[in-house]
Amino acid sequence: MVGSSPCASCKLLRRCCAKDCVFAPYFPADDPHKFAVVHKVFGDSNVSKMLQKLPLHQRADAVSSLVYEAIARVRDPVYGCVGAISHLQNQVSQLQMELAVAQADILCIQMQQHHRQVVDKPNDDMPQSLDFTSSNDNIVVYDSFKNESIYGYDLLS
Ligand SMILES: [Zn+2]
């Protein structure tokens, strides 16, 4: 032993941790699980080759990605992180749908308010029989408009 303790990978692989060990900066001895999961999924020699091909400033990001992918693969051996990605994509499209419905509702309310402002303007010349303020027909018109907006969005997306 040369004073410093071996990194997590050298400890697991029971070898001497050299001064220029490619794993040492990213797999500290106090977090052995991090290397264990990456080693299990990718193999230490593959990880070593990948890290050596990368410039120093990209290695930390590569290690985070490898650790993330390895943990996802252990949790879900069939889909790995693709499972998480498709779950998140489903959430995004669900939320886009909800947003479209909310936007259609807002538009509907704005149209109703605009209609009320127009109708509420007193017009002395207008005969009483043409005043539709209390008519239920308005609701039907707005409902069909709302549905069209939602379907219109579906076709676009
Ligand atoms: Zn080492």
From TrEMBL:
InterPro entries: LOB
Residues of the LOB domain: 5-106
Family recorded in the similarity comment: Belongs to the LOB domain-containing protein family.
Protein name: LOB domain-containing protein
